[in-house]
Amino acid sequence: MISENDAMIRLTAKCAGAEYCVADIRKMMSRWELPEGVADKIIKRLLDERYIDEKRYAHAFVRDKFRYNHWGWIRIELELKKRNIAQEFIDEAKEEINDEANLTELRRIIKSKRRTVKGKSEYEVNAKLFRFALSRGFSYADINEVLHTDIEE
User: What would the DSSP string read from start to end of the chain?
Assistant: First the structure.
C-alpha cells in the first residue's frame, strides 16, 4: 500500500506522459490498495487539474486504435463504452474517422490478410476474411461491400 501523496505523484507523472481515463486510473489505484475515499479524492483532483480529460482521451483512443491497431468503429466504440466514456464524447470522437478512410483501411487489412488465408474454395476464404474483419470491429455492410467489390475486380 502506498500513501496518498505518493499515489498522486505517480499518477500525475503517468497522466503527463499519456492519456488515461477515469477507469484506467481506478484500475491502477485498486492494485495499490488505496482506500475508496482516497481514490475518489485523487481522481477529482486529477480531473480538476486536467490531467485526466475523458473527451481528450476519447479522441486520442479513436485515432490510435484506428491508425495503429487497425480497428473498425464498432470495436472502438465498444472499448470506449467498456471504459465508461460518455456517449457524447464517443460520438464526437467518431467524427475523426470518415467513411472513406474506414473503407480504405478495411480494404487494406483484407488485402493483407487474404495473402495468408487458406481455404478449399473462394467461399471459404471469404468467410474467414469476413470473420477476421468482424473481429476487428468493421460493420457487416462495409465488409460485404469490400469483399464483393474485390471479387468483381
Answer: ---HHHHHHHHHHHHHHS---HHHHHHHHHHTT--HHHHHHHHHHHHHTTS--HHHHHHHHHHHHHHTS---HHHHHHHHHHTT--HHHHHHHHTTS-HHHHHHHHHHHHHHHHTT---SSHHHHHHHHHHHHHHTT--HHHHHHHHHHHHH-
